Amino acid sequence: MTGTRQARSAPTVTQISLPADARALSKLPRIDYEDAFMVSAGVEHTPQQWVRAVIDDAPARVRARLFVGWLALGLKLGPPWSSRRVLGWRVARSEPGWLLLRADSWLGLRGELLFGRQPNGLLFATLVQQTNPAARAAWARITDTHQHVVRSLLMHAANREQAAEVGAHS
């Protein structure tokens, strides 16, 4: 007797408009920049599991580059190894379907990373407030790189999680 295995589609990462209900979770007084990505990976995870998959389970060299890049933006991060933070980011809100990370910058940026549980995937958003011209100029210079890095992080996490899910059911 042979079992049939249902083929899974490859994970996808699609840039979308940030839904209003997700935007409402922000603690920023004003949002000057936002982007949002939908990850379809065929796995059901809590936001905390997605944070682990996207950030904590990324290779050490990737986490180091993220941390150094965030410091270059002047983010005031806590210890990256702290169990109460996510690679230095403070948890600003944690609900069953959402997790919001927050960091402020001496440069004048205020940033949030939002992880939202979706059926078979994740909604990930970056929200930024720019409080002065230097912050606006810095963010304008890195926007394309930021989006490229986010897509890469999300795709690698989705691939790892889908492979783990398939392996668990084999």
What does this 3D model show about the protein?
- A hairpin with a 2-residue loop joins β3 and β4.
- This protein has a 7-stranded antiparallel beta sheet, covered by helices on one side.
- The protein has 170 residues and is of the alpha+beta class.
- The chain is 37% helix and 28% strand.
- The chain has helices at 20-23, 47-56, 60-72, 133-168; strands spanning 12-16, 33-40, 85-86, 89-94, 98-104, 109-118, 121-130.
- The two termini are 16 Å apart.
- The protein is globular.
- The protein is built from 4 helices and 7 strands; from the N terminus they run βαβααβββββα.
Major sheet characteristics: 7 strands, antiparallel
User: Would you count the extended β strands for me?
Assistant: 7
Strand order of the largest sheet: 1-2-7-6-5-4-3
Helicity, as a percent range:
25-40%
The value of Rg in angstroms is: 17 Å
- Structural class computed from helices and strand pairing: alpha+beta
Q: How far apart are the termini?
A: 16 Å
Tags for this model:
170 residues, alpha+beta, 37% helix, globular, disordered N terminus
